[in-house]
Backbone:
């Protein structure tokens, strides 16, 4: 028996998120089935975390145990043969038997992609959220720094959050312009349920003038979900990177 | 009667290119039909040029004549109501009656997006071509400058090119890295049939070591299609910008 770590990239558009659910097409379901087809084993596939319906991943780590004789570095190729076009495994490697894709995470980076337009932009719409204009980029950018550091983010998570503590450390956050779209990048030791989407929604509302920039510190301190912005829609969110100890 | 210029953005994945063809889903066909639904008129919609099946556009200009009483600046909204999600009109304006979306073009910019990987990358695959590794970015980048200026590009067009002359002026060309992908940007006074895709294919083969960088000047001078690279696949190509006199 060996433990294998894989890195998965997927376009989440057509999936009901990561976690296996009855009657739903999920990423965990598709990859687990592809592993069964490739290796002949029903494995317990554990990822770095769950993603919601419609959310994407550039590099989501996951692990499983197997008795296969296929070379560890080639397992991803065998799995890919059974995966649809919108889910692929980028690599596979043997890891220590106590490695855990979720519990050993020390840092995650998400990006939130969006564009401000009164018209849908078909070329970028699959992986970006459309927001209404006007949107003031400089004002939105100016509030990012308030999120940095250790805060109780209980006001920035949705009902259903199941973590023991709501204190998280945001190490880096930045907003940049890339062609027609804006990209918010957030790096932290971990995130609460919907936390990145609520941070994105809040920063977007600052840019739209719905939330005042100078109110941000007190909104974070208030721990009041009602004072933060709306949860930004899932299509703009992508898990970019996960680091382990 | 007034002449209206519109700017169209589309994801070309599901279309047999721009031009109306029997039994095919085309961008010209969809937009012409949407104009008919919105304005009640069958118009002759002329774009800046034809795009092949699978090619995208960020901003493709087109014009048509209409007797509609809808305010020119609002016509695009009426049309969008009848367009599918992967084609949208970004703006509409009245132009002089002798404006022509194709004949008045003075400059076009295309981008070619690609990534080098042995695995499909689902997050970027819809609008980027996958090429095989290894790919040496610096070497590929180094040959871009050879294309600049006025050349006879007859060796860089496909059979079926219908232009009077095969001499074209490339004003700007550059290759940059954006995250996981490479973006080749080419600006010129016009392009022959498949010219950007053949230039992209050639630069890609230089990066892959299939064509030697130092051979590029003689390949261009030879006017021999067989010495240039393969025509890169359509999904990576996007019409970015068109300028008029």
Residues:
């Amino acid at each position: 028996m060996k433990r294998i770590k894989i890195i998965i990239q997927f376009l989440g558009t057509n999936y009901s998120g990561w976690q296996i659910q009855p009657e739903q097409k999920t990423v965990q379901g598709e990859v687990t089935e592809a592993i069964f087809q490739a290796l002949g084993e029903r494995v317990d596939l554990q990822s770095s975390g769950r993603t919601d319906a419609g959310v994407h991943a550039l590099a989501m780590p996951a692990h499983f145990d197997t008795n296969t004789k296929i070379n560890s570095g080639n397992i991803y190729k065998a799995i890919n043969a059974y995966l649809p076009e919108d889910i692929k495994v980028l690599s596979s490697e043997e890891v220590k038997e106590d490695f855990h894709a979720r519990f050993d995470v020390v840092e995650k980076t998400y990006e939130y992609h969006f564009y401000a337009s009164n018209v849908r932009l078909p070329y970028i719409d699959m992986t970006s959220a459309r927001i209404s204009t006007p949107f003031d980029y400089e004002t939105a950018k100016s509030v990012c720094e308030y999120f940095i550091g250790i805060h109780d983010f209980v006001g920035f998570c949705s009902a259903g959050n199941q973590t023991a503590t709501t204190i998280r450390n945001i190490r880096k956050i930045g907003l940049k312009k890339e062609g027609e779209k804006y990209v918010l990048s957030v790096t932290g030791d971990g995130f609460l349920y919907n936390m990145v989407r609520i941070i994105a929604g809040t920063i977007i509302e600052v840019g739209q003038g719905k939330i005042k920039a100078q109110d941000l510190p007190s909104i974070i301190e208030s721990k009041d979900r009602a004072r933060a912005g709306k949860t930004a829609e899932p299509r703009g969110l992508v898990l970019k990177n996960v680091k382990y100890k």
Summary: The CA atoms of residues 9 and 88 of chain B lie 5 Å apart. The beta strands of chain B are 2-10, 46-47, 56-66, 87-95, 105-116, 129-131, 149-152, 167-178, 181-188, 237-244. Chain B touches chain A through 26 residues (CB under 8 Å). The radius of gyration of chain B is 19 Å.
